[in-house]
Amino acid sequence: MSPFKGQTGLKRIVNAAGYSLAGLRVAIAGEAAFRQLMLLNLVLIPLAFYSDVSRGERALMVGVCLLALIVELLNSALEAAVDRISLEVHPLSKNAKDMGSAAQFMSLTLIASVWTVILLG
């Protein structure tokens, strides 16, 4: 058992929820890209419910939108960790940040692709 591990059981779940909410607050306050994706989701998710599509298609349309938020949170966490290690320009740091950005680009491409196929298919 790691000495760095915290509580177990219900206390762990409560603590984890608190950490998650803190992370969302930080993302909303400090990450413009996350706020932009939230706005995009505020438009697209209701639109998915007003679209004449099957339940499975609607779930997919909403799911890819939420996936983009998840990817942005992970990308922001990666960038914060890289910056915490060093603000020095380094090829490996650049690669890590660029790959995080590429992951976000792919998730946005997925949104466009899924929505296009469903709405035009």
UniProtKB/TrEMBL annotation:
It catalyses: a 1,2-diacyl-sn-glycerol + ATP = a 1,2-diacyl-sn-glycero-3-phosphate + ADP + H(+). Mn(2+), Zn(2+), Cd(2+) and Co(2+) support activity to lesser extents. Its EC number is 2.7.1.107. One of its GO terms (molecular function) is metal ion binding. ATP binds at residues 12, 19, 31, 79, 88-90, 97-98. It holds the Pfam family DAGK_prokar. Substrate binds at residues 12, 58, 72, 101. The chain crosses the membrane at residues 33-53, 60-82, 102-120. GO terms for cellular component: plasma membrane. A divalent metal cation binds at residues 31, 79. InterPro entries: DAGK, DAGK_prok, DAGK_sf. It is an enzyme of class 2 (transferase). It is found in: Cell inner membrane. PANTHER family: DIACYLGLYCEROL KINASE. This is Diacylglycerol kinase. It comes from Pseudomonas borbori.
